[in-house]
Amino acid sequence: MSSFPHILLQWYAANGRSLPWRQTRDPYAIWLSEVILQQTRIEQGRPYWKRFMSRWPTVNDLAAATEDEVLREWQGLGYYSRARNLHAAARQIVQLGAFPDTFEGIKTLKGVGDYTAAAIASMAFDIPAAVVDGNVYRVLSRYFDIDTPINTTEGKQVFSALATSLLPVNEAAAFNQAIMDFGAIQCTPSSPKCLFCPLMDSCAALRNGTVERRPVKLKTLKIKERHLTYLYIRCNGIIAIHRRGAGDIWHGLWEPVLLYDDQGEGIDKALAEQLLQESRLIRKGVKHVLTHRVIIADFYLLETERKPVLPEDYRWVKEETFDDYAKPRLIELLLKTLNS
């Protein structure tokens, strides 16, 4: 074993994070943690993992749940396609009769890519598959001072091959967890602890003064704005809500009446203008920042004794039951303004 993995494993033995999903070899529990922790910090994801494991302790239990139940339990984590894929994959596993126990088999599950498959394969089945996530890119690009952009095809191939070449075959799970923890705790994105690093004597980026410039990532993301106008209709204790359709980031989630959307969605324009004239403004310009876009929403309230005629996809429910419906974080923010 070369010095790099040996030192990392020593560091991990003394400094590794104690996480509940590391205390099990159950592929379901490990898979659940990996899906939750995509785009989510451990501190935020840990209570969700515990709630999911408590409510649905086996993959069969999760598969038997409804999508609404899963989305409601997921509420607050965002990126709801993860929850929908999780539920669909649970049903895949039930149909297969058992959790797949090969890297290729795990990759067939909906929503599972190379990284997640490698994590599950190594941690649940001792398969020597190297994980490559943001922490791994950062550690390897600094230690070897690699300037190949990580968000290119070449970069992904270079770092995947390098991680695989360093992987101790008989300690794949420990090494994968070690390098991820090392990136999260020691070799952090900003202010890395270089002066107290066990790898400082052999780190090429530290020697060359390029630590802060690694990893290299091409700027390709364009942030777009999206403007929405919502109307909360309150009529004798009931409210109007509808479910977002397929092909949307909020697919399957519930919201109040959508009057306008600068992408062309919303109710009939004449009806929207009529309802808007009868309502009062609650909050204007509420900003909700996502990775690829900024959503700006206006929120109106209409309190009426007579239900207006709305499109067929709207339903009227008791106001106090709206909390039982999975809804986007933006809608949660808007609802808080009703009583503020």
Structure description:
Strands 1, 2, 3, 4, 5, 6 and 7 form a 7-stranded mixed beta sheet that branches. Helix 1 packs across helix 11, helix 2 (27-36) packs antiparallel against helix 8 (114-125) and helix 9 packs across helix 11. The protein is an alpha+beta fold and 340 residues long. The mean pLDDT is 94. The longest helix is centred in the first third of the chain and has 16 residues, at 81-96. It contains 14 helices and 7 strands.
What order do the helices and strands come in, and which of them pair?
Blueprint: H1 3-15, H2 27-36, H3 42-55, H4 59-64, H5 67-74, H6 81-96, H7 103-107, H8 114-125, H9 134-143, H10 153-166, H11 172-185, H12 204-208, E1 224-235, E2 238-243, E3 254-255, E4 257-261, H13 269-278, E5 280-289, E6 293-303, E7 314-318, H14 329-336
Helix pairs in contact: 1-11, 2-3, 2-8, 8-11, 9-11
Short characterization:
It is built from 14 helices and 7 strands. It is of the alpha+beta class and 340 residues long.
Give Rg in angstroms.
Answer: 24 Å
Strand-residue fraction?
Answer: 15-25%
Percent helix: 40-55%
**Count of discrete alpha- or pi-helical segments spanning 4 or more residues:** 14
- Number of distinct beta strands: 7
Report the uncertain regions: none
Name the assembly state.
single chain
Terminal CA distance reads 61 Å
Shape field = elongated
Q: Tell me, rounded to a whole number, the average pLDDT.
A: 94
